[in-house]
UniProtKB/TrEMBL annotation:
Residues 123-155 form the SWIM-type domain. GO terms for molecular function: zinc ion binding. The keyword Zinc applies. The keyword Metal-binding applies. Residues 210-236, 251-294 are annotated as: Disordered. PANTHER family: MUTATOR TRANSPOSASE MUDRA PROTEIN, POLYPROTEIN, PUTATIVE-RELATED. Keywords: Metal-binding, Zinc, Zinc-finger. Transmembrane segments: none annotated. This is SWIM-type domain-containing protein.
Length: 294
């Protein structure tokens, strides 16, 4: 916080007014087992709806239902094909942390407790309590590099590959992943086969006709893009990936290339006159025929 205050005092004051559990990893609730908070899931879900955001509510819900049916089946099949106890992304993070233990210095004690020394200081690890002083293991549920070094010494390098899953939180295992998608969204008849409901029981013993609410059309073209946050970067268009074939620079094509325009301006009328060749006497027909046969 002091370093942030040196760069921008206003930012330090703004962060002071927000509970650290909403923006700082050290204050995250370890019960959640998540080391980052983003709105990626809402953005991804919004893009999956695509053009169906313009349809009626009933059609939109039907699209979401069928989409979730497919997703549940795809995730279940994908997970059943895993050969490891841990999901692929969790396994990749652990493999990355295992490569970092080469730079650590270990002090071994007893009762499954260790102290790991790095350039920035030391961290104590308690394997019995699944705890590391850096806090990463408790917050994410995935082994940090300090815990990986302690487990490698405790279990031995030969058995650490089979024992490492025992120190990962149970919510991040293949069994928990399968349990998430064990449910099933059953198919239902098409809307054309639904029974028409003409009455709505508002109170016991009373019935009233239920009509749809009146539809009001708002002026202007319907909005399709979602509202972006004030500090969110705008969507990047294709112009940033276009490469010019003349100057090989990004951001424009050969038609709008400034290098080409400068050459044309330097040439002027000379370039225009040179593009037209003077009239020449065509060769005799006999020579043309002989060239074709040759």
């Amino acid at each position: 916080m002091e370093q942030i205050g040196i760069i921008n005092p206003v930012a330090k004051k703004w962060l002071r007014e927000i509970d650290p559990q909403h923006w700082s990893r050290f204050a995250y609730d370890p019960v959640i087992r998540c080391d980052h908070v983003t709105n990626n899931i809402t953005v991804a879900f919004n893009s999956m709806l695509n053009t169906h955001r313009d349809v009626t509510y009933l059609d939109l819900l039907e699209f979401i239902r069928r989409m979730m049916m497919r997703k549940f089946n795809e995730r279940r099949k994908e997970c059943s094909g895993w050969s490891s106890v841990l999901p692929l992304r969790v396994h990749a993070k652990i493999l990355k942390h295992s490569k970092e233990i080469r730079t650590l210095t270990m002090i071994t004690t007893w009762n499954m407790e260790y102290e790991l020394l790095v350039a920035s200081g030391g961290y104590s690890v308690n394997l019995r309590e699944y705890n590391c002083q850096c806090g990463s293991w408790q917050v994410s549920g995935i082994l940090c590099c300090h815990a990986m070094a302690a487990i490698s010494h405790y279990c031995g390098r030969g058995a650490v590959k089979d024992k490492v899953a025992e120190f990962v939180h149970s919510s991040l295992t293949k069994t928990a992943y399968m349990q998430t998608y064990v449910g099933m969204i059953h198919p239902i008849p098409d809307q054309k086969r639904w029974l028409e409901v003409l009455v709505c029981i508002m109170r016991p013993g009373y019935t009233e006709l239920m009509n749809p609410p009146p539809r009001s059309v708002q002026p202007g073209r319907p909005k399709k893009q979602r509202n972006r946050e004030p500090d969110e970067a705008p969507k990047v268009g294709r112009s940033g990936t276009v490469i010019c074939k003349l100057c090989h620079q990004a951001g424009h094509n050969k038609r709008s290339c400034q290098h080409r325009n400068d050459k044309e301006n330097e040439g002027g009328s000379v370039g225009a006159s040179s593009s037209h060749q003077p009239n020449q006497t065509p060769p005799p027909q006999s020579q043309v025929t002989q060239q074709l046969f040759d």
